[in-house]
Each structure stands twice: as structure tokens, then as C-alpha cells.
């Protein structure tokens, strides 16, 4: 299935009105995320849940420059029904469901907005293929903090203890034609390590990254996006392929390498991502 690019998805605590307003203005600075996730779950203490829900209700009445999702509280909590009802009646662009462990959770939730299932437990990882295959699920979001805790691992700069689980989520999402989104990076004071983790996530096949601070958005957009140089190179490859096909050839040569249909298709995907992420009014934009 085709889907809007989600290079960066910014979590914003629902009990922080000033943070919500700041997030709404990020696109004016040219560093806006591809989606905002207004958070009613982990980022909000129990005593602030009701007020956070009202804050999010008011925020959803406003015009936003990007899709706005709401992370609701999970099944079995005293907040789940009120959260979902508020979000759906307020015209939310999607629901983020925490700690999804089986396809029944997503399959039995009959709503008319995209669902983003968070994979945060070993059981969720093992059932990720069925969860991703559920109609209505747009993507899988990794919740690495909870996952690491349940796996009893220790922190590692290269996330070695989590690599199998991370790749399993990517595999499940890609097999179902959905978007795999990498986990948050907690140390907002270490942009170098954040950029390195973005590079790793892109290498693993993730389509984007969830972030917890506006300063992380630009790096995530850059790593999971397409540069102008990459777009030009993709176009040059497609031109070489089209020229070869016009001559009746089944392969082409570009920059000394053989080019086949799969390479042309990949270049087309690069161009599509470039065009989809250009600001309106810019070349390639909408």
C-alpha cells in the first residue's frame, strides 16, 4: 500500500499546551516533522490524564500543517475508551496503539482512521507479521525502551541486543506493505549519537523515526529522506534505462554499472520520496 512518507514522527505530551503550540509552528521554521503524535500515554502521569485529553481535544480543533495522531492509553486501562472516543470525534488523522501484542487488538478495533501499532514486547515482535497484515494498520512503531526492559538487556551504543527484534519488525512491516518506524532516542543532548542511530535505522530498512524533541526532526528527515544529489542521480539512472529500453535493450549501463528493471524501479521510489517531501511551491513539491 502507498502511504505518506513518515521520516519523522514527533511525540508531544498531551499535558503540555505550550509544547503542543510549539509543535504546531515547527513547519514555519522549515524543520517540521512528517507527523505529530499527541501523547496521552507514557508521557502523561495518571493525575494529568483527564486534563491532557482536554488539551488534545482543543488542539485537534486547530489547523495543522501535517497529520496529527494521538497515542491513546492501552487496552485494559481506565482511560482507553475516553481517549479513543475523544480522538475519533475530534477528527484525528490516526491512532497510535501502545503495546500491541496480537492481531486481535488491531483487527477488532473498527475505526475509520489509520492505526499505528506499537511493538514494545517480545510477544509483539513474534506476532508482528499478523499485526502488520491487519487491514487498517498503516505502520509498526518500535517501542525500544519497554522492549529492552522485557528482554532484560543492557544498553549498548549499537543496539546489538535489539538488532534481531528491530529487523523482525522491519521484515513484518515491509512484507505487509506497511511502514516500519524506528524507536525514539532518549538523549536529546547527544545529536551525534542520534544521527548515528538514524543511520543504523535507515540501514536496517526503517522508513522513519519517532522523536521526542524538535531538535531531532531535521536529522531524522535528512537521514530517512532523499537529498537533491540523490534525486538527480536517480533521475539520471532512469534516463539511462529509458534510453536503453527505447533501443530494445533489456539492460543499460550507468556510471559503469549494469542497470536492470529493479534498479529503475528503485530509482523511481527514490524520486517519489523526494517529490513527496518537498515543500509546497518548491521544485518537485505539491
TrEMBL record:
Cofactor (UniProt)? Mg(2+)
Alphabetical keyword list:
Magnesium, Metal-binding
Q: Which Pfam families match?
A: HpcH_HpaI (PF03328)
Q: Which InterPro entries match?
A: Aldolase/citrate-lyase_domain, Citrate_lyase_beta/mcl1/mcl2, Pyrv/PenolPyrv_kinase-like_dom, Pyrv_kinase-like_dom_sf
Q: The HpcH/HpaI aldolase/citrate lyase domain covers which part of the protein?
A: 7-214
Q: Where is the signal peptide?
A: none
Domain of life where this protein originates:
Bacteria
What is the name attached to this protein's record? (3S)-malyl-CoA thioesterase
Source organism per entry reads Deinococcus xinjiangensis
